[in-house]
Design a protein that fits this description.
It is a single chain. Helix content is 18%, strand content 45%. By secondary structure, it is of the alpha+beta class. The protein folds into 2 domains: 119 residues, 2,3-Dihydroxybiphenyl 1,2-Dioxygenase, domain 1 (Roll); 117 residues, 2,3-Dihydroxybiphenyl 1,2-Dioxygenase, domain 1 (Roll), CATH 3.10.180. The chain is built from 5 helices and 16 strands. β6 and β7 form a beta hairpin. The relative contact order is 0.17. It is globular. It has an 8-stranded mixed sheet with strand order 2-3-4-1-5-8-7-6. An 8-stranded mixed sheet has the order 10-11-12-9-13-16-15-14, with helices on one face.
């Protein structure tokens, strides 16, 4: 039985300008190791690992990267698909676009870097080997939640439902800041669409939540290492979790998550 279910979060890259500074920040904040992989494309690929398990990567902007990307370091999520090319075609039918066409990565898989109709960037990914079974709860050091700021949650669910089968679940009124819509995949909460009041959208819209063993400790280390506050540590309403959001030293937004 394959564990490659559509829309499963598989990977992330932290796109940055100064890899030495960014590497030090994340290894200390998230307690990650770095594993260097001799990529067949020629440039060594630095992977972040929780223990010995790779969870994502550090990716310096290529020299030919668009100026808008280099000006805004960010995290890029990779979502599973059984057919990258078909997913790209469907995305285009929905008004999206690509900024890297479907590409084979030797011994890794096939991927494409894309943008939805509202400007949110992500990647389709079909790994060469079937991934491990998805745990009920992300282990410490792994991404345990994702979210995206959207202008219209109904439209977002229509588009991403067509791509991945994501469906709407609970909604939370966040007062003057907007409304939060939980994303379900295969009948379980995996993330959310955040519809900001007034339609104000950040330049990079996907946020990944890294599960940590000590939220306050990770938060304090981040601030000492040049991170900046976005949202102070807080309890999740109605749950047994705490979260915090911040920017790394280059301005890339991400979040920390603690759960019992």
């Amino acid at each position: 039985m394959s564990h490659l279910s559509p829309g499963r979060f598989l990977w992330f890259e932290v796109l940055c300008r100064e890899p030495d500074r960014v590497r030090e920040f994340y290894t200390q904040v998230c307690d990650w190791n770095v594993i260097t992989w001799p990529s067949p494309l020629g440039t060594p690929y630095e992977m972040f690992a929780a223990g010995e398990v790779p969870v994502g990567a550090l990716f310096p902007f290529p020299a030919d990267a668009p100026a808008e990307h280099r000006a805004n370091p960010h995290w890029l999520p990779y979502f599973a698909t059984a057919d990258v090319d078909a997913s790209v075609r469907r995305l285009r039918e929905l008004g999206g676009a690509t900024w890297m066409e479907p590409t084979d990565l030797p011994s890794v898989g096939r991927t494409a870097l894309v943008r939805d109709r509202t400007g949110a960037d992500f990647a389709f990914f079909k790994p060469e080997n079937d991934p491990a079974e998805e745990p009920a709860q992300a282990p410490v050091g792994h991404v345990g939640w994702i979210e995206c700021s959207v202008p219209d949650a109904t439209q977002a669910f229509a588009d991403y439902g067509a791509l991945f089968g994501w469906t709407p679940a609970e909604q939370f009124d966040m007062g003057p800041t907007g409304r939060y819509h939980v994303i379900h995949r295969e009948h379980r909460g995996v993330g959310g669409f955040y519809q900001a009041a007034g339609g104000v959208l950040p330049p990079w819209r996907w946020i990944c939540y890294v599960r940590v063993a000590d939220l306050e400790g990770a938060w304090n280390r981040a601030l000492m290492l040049g991170g900046t506050r976005v949202m102070e540590p807080m309890a999740v309403p109605g749950g047994n979790a705490r979260i915090a959001m911040l920017r790394d030293p280059e301005g890339a937004t991400f979040a920390l998550q603690w759960t019992e």
